[in-house]
Amino acid sequence: MSTNQPPDNGCLPTHIDPKALTEQVKTLARDLGFHEVGISSIDISAQRPRLEQWLQQGYQGEMEFMERHQDKRTQPDQLHPGTLNAICVRMEYLPPEVETVRVLQNPQQAYISRYALGRDYHKPVRKRLAQLAKKIAEIHGPFISRPFVDSAPVMEKPLAQKAGLGWQGKHSLIIDRSAGSYFVIGELLTDLPLIPDPPYEEDHCRRCTACMDVCPTNAFPEPYVLDARRCISYLTIELKGSIPEEFRPLIGNRVFGCDDCQLVCPWNRYCHYTDQQDFKPRHGLDQAQLIDLFNWSEAEFLKNTEGSPIRRCGYQGWLRNLAVGIGNSNGGETAINALSEKRESCSPMVQEHIDWAIQELQKGAAPAALPLTEHHPRKVRHLLKTKF
Ligand code: B12
Ligand code: SF4
Ligand code: SF4
What we know:
Helix content is about 40%, strand content about 10%. The chain has about 400 residues and is of the alpha+beta class. It folds into two domains: about 1-100 and about 115-190; about 210-270 and about 285-385, no CATH class. A hairpin with a 5-residue loop joins strand 6 (about 165-170) and strand 7 (about 175). The chain is elongated. One iron/sulfur cluster binds near residues 260 and 261.
């Protein structure tokens, strides 16, 4: 928690007009490059029973951090007494030039979740939130503030919904009707007397179930509820050990995260693209071949993923994911040779995935049909005609 310094001249306003201050805060946030901003009060304790139920079902898998600090998650003022409001921001991350469906359809290529192609979002969003706090202090005087972006035990989606940034769709992510869902969320917790926005009450999912139908691993036990243990994002990023064999063929070529449930969402037909350089693909990661990435040495991995979210899965996790992708590629002898050559230098966990992949390749079967094509041929045809 930081207390920002008063302006140089020390002339602090004695009477605060909350309405004017709220407008100033929003203008400053937009000027800093945030694509939308809303204010919410910080009591989201109504979500507590749902969080508890989710945990009781074991849906968090090995993400033990989700089991800790349940009070803080739903009552962020417990992170720091005196917190009154959250300034919630969203930043879009989908670069306009990247293809998604075509890469998913090509089993030799690596599909990396579109938020992870460039710079790790945590740093730029946090930095801007800190700049926002500084700018507010220049006009308002000292106040208490703390920036978060996926960095503290706070339920960010309910806060964003309360701030009017969108509704939580059946895939559990926040969607804005005019901008889609390809954005990350951050917030500045403050003691400022701001005026909260009305919460986003409407649910525009209605009878649609496209995200649930398309999910390659069937990760939604019911609408709005995700069993993270089945989600490819969890399996390829958060899970540190072996990927259960039942999921390997279903993962296809998704080697870091997954976007399928967002890709088919009708509201993403109107999604906004990012204008931020930070999210531009680095090292050709939007079009890379699985084998080329698998051939990276550890030094290359560390160099090429500097400042990237991909670092999170570590080099062995990266190789594990790529081995699964190559196993699904129907890449023949070339793929088997690439896997065999590297096997010796890998951890036993990765070796086990390599052995599985070689077996799959030796079967010589056609690559496991990508569920996107299997379940939604009409939707994919449509997507192929679009800029995706
Ligand atoms: C843990 C986590 C994950 C886990 C679990 C995901 C999950 N849905 O919980 C995994 C690793 C799988 C994951 C994956 C992804 N994540 Co994530 N993740 C988080 C994290 C850290 C916590 C989320 C959480 O609290 N989960 C606990 C459960 C209980 O919450 P929930 O799913 O929202 O459950 C609610 C609903 O089920 C609802 N509910 C239950 N029943 C009903 C019934 C009705 C009628 C309604 C309306 C609601 C409802 O109530 C529950 C409580 O609010 C947040 C950051 C944060 N600190 O909040 C980012 C966050 C949610 N992730 C984010 C992103 C971008 C992703 C990915 C897209 C990344 C990727 N491309 O691979 C995927 C998307 C997968 C998906 N469909 O959710 C963004 C989402 C931005 C957005 N637009 O909403 C966040 C907010 C990070 C950020 N700061 O931007 N993530
Ligand atoms: S990110 Fe992929 S695996 Fe996870 S819920 Fe969405 S479609 Fe399913
Ligand atoms: S795909 Fe359909 S059900 Fe899923 S979030 Fe989008 S509108 Fe809602």
